[in-house]
Amino acid sequence: MENQDDKPIADTRRYKYMNEFDATMQMIQGKWKVMLLYELYEQPARRFGELMKYIDGISHKTLTKQLRELEAHELLTRTLYSEVPARVEYNLSDKGRSLIPLLEMICKWGLANVDRNEMERLLCEEENDELFS
Asked: pLDDT digit string (tens) for 45-65?
């Protein structure tokens, strides 16, 4: 863009992400998002109450917020069934499933490089070692 004086005009576009790494990290950052992604990978078609039970200590408000953010990034799908009472199920989208190999690599690195006594909970426990072969 140039003005009448042939001086470049500042680009006024606002970027949401600094780069592709930042974009990926922002989509999955949050205390519970990785746990939600893993749970939906291991147990598809989960209902809100089931997710509340799986993640001990998460509040209703926080779970709602995290699920909405994952849905906004198209990492999961939310299906509302017109039944009485209403039923809502959450599933990983194709985009969300495409993150699983990356999360498994991060999990494997964490298991190899962080003392397990420093972790409150393991997501990729030893019985899931076949995921990392």
From this structure: 999 999 999 988 899 999 999
Q: What is the CA radius of gyration of the chain?
A: 20
Domain ranges (residues) in the chain: 23-113+122-132
**Of 95, 49, 106, residue with least CA distance to 72:** 95
User: Which residues 6+ apart lie within 8 Å of 12 measured at CB?
Assistant: none
For domain 23-113+122-132, which architecture applies? Answer: Orthogonal Bundle (1.10)
Compute the Cα dihedral for 97, 99, 101, 106 and give only its sign: negative
Cα 49–chain centre separation: 18
Predicted pLDDT of residue 133: 42
Q: Are strands 87-92 and 46-47 parallel, antiparallel or unpaired?
A: antiparallel
Q: Reduced to 3 states, what is the DSSP secondary structure of residue 45? A: coil
63: tokens are: 């779970």
